[in-house]
């Protein structure tokens, strides 16, 4: 079968992506990145950000809480120093962008409207920043305004990464679709709080984002719900640890999948997911992804 997946103007070699914030820019593990459909960069903002104070990670049974706070070099240094090197990767390069005003998203899209960028992932869902992030993603009108502005400032494929924190993602997905998004990613991490045993917040940023296996059942629910609500492709994300998880997300309606926290444990996790998916398709003689994508609802 042809393993390729096309979203917007971008054709990916296969449906597996390394998720933003968990694989940096793909440069440390090119042998893995080169065999994936693509790498989603860590979030890029207009200005450099030092991120939140440590500690930034808290483990718990079933996952982790992170409070990185969008640490990144800023768009100017990213374009000058990082982007030329990522272009040497053989996979697709998706740049995740995060703004603190609606206008910042438009400026970031214009600055990154380059042939070196295959697609933009518009981050309206980061849970551990005080401004923007999930606060934007909870409001369909704001999601629509940001998406429309980005769409008007770039010819790149536009993917909107949605939140499921205190909002129906089906409604924000419809807003993104109406404004011209080529796809949506669902879900980002969920709000979480860890205490230090003395009643004080453990993380330096106080709150964090929950990721890992504990997230999967809710993420699957959201993918199933969003895929039924929109016609544009859905990219599933949330607790993807192995190929079996990826098959579940594709079955629920995702056209592609993102591997996140698993890469922090094993940098080859996303490649293992792709190898497992390919073996499943070979063993079951799948003619194409359409046989698998959305079969949960067809079989109901």
Describe what this molecule looks like in 3D.
It is a single chain. The mean pLDDT is about 95. The protein is built from eleven helices and 14 strands. The chain is about 35% helix and about 20% strand. The protein has an eight-stranded parallel β-barrel, surrounded by six helices. The longest helix is centred in the C-terminal third of the chain and has 15 residues, at about 270-285. With about 300 residues, the chain is of the alpha/beta class.
The first-to-last residue Cα distance is 26 Å
Strand order of the largest sheet: 3-4-7-8-9-10-13-14
Mean pLDDT: 96
Approximately what portion of the residues adopt beta-strand conformation?
A: 15-25%
Radius of gyration of CA atoms, rounded to a whole number: 18 Å
Catalogue the unreliable spans: none
The overall strand count is 14
Shape call: globular
Helices, by number, come to 11
Instruction: Give helix and strand order, one letter per element, not per position.
Output: EEEHEEEHEHEHHEHEEEHEHEHHH
Largest sheet: 8 strands, parallel, barrel
State the helical fraction: 25-40%
The structural class is alpha/beta
């Amino acid at each position: 079968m042809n393993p390729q997946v096309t979203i917007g103007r971008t054709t990916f070699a296969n449906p597996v992506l390394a998720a933003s914030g968990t694989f940096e820019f793909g440069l440390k593990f090119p042998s893995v990145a080169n065999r994936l459909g693509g790498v989603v960069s860590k979030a890029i903002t207009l200005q450099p950000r030092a991120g939140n104070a440590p500690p930034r990670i808290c483990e718990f049974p079933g996952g982790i809480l992170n409070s990185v706070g969008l640490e990144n070099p800023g768009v100017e240094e990213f374009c000058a120093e990082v982007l030329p090197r990522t272009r040497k990767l053989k996979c697709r390069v998706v740049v995740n962008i995060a703004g603190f005003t609606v206008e910042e998203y438009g400026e970031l899209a214009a600055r990154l409207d380059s042939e070196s960028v295959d697609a933009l992932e518009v981050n309206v869902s980061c849970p551990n920043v005080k401004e923007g992030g999930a606060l934007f993603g909870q409001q369909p009108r704001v999601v629509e305004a940001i998406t429309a502005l980005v769409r008007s400032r770039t010819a790149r494929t536009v993917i909107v990464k949605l939140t499921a924190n205190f909002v129906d993602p089906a409604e924000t997905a419809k807003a993104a679709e109406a404004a011209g998004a080529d796809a949506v990613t669902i879900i980002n991490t969920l709000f979480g709080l860890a205490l230090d045993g003395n009643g004080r917040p453990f993380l330096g940023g106080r709150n964090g984002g929950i990721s890992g296996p504990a997230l999967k059942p809710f993420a699957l629910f959201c993918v199933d719900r969003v895929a039924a609500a929109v016609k544009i492709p859905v990219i599933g994300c949330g607790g993807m640890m192995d190929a079996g998880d990826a098959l579940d997300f594709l079955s629920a309606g995702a056209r592609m999948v993102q591997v996140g926290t698993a890469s922090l444990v094993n940098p080859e996790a996303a490649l293992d997911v792709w190898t497992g998916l390919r073996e499943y398709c070979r063993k079951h003689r799948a003619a194409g992804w359409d046989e698998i994508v959305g079969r949960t609802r067809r079989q109901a």
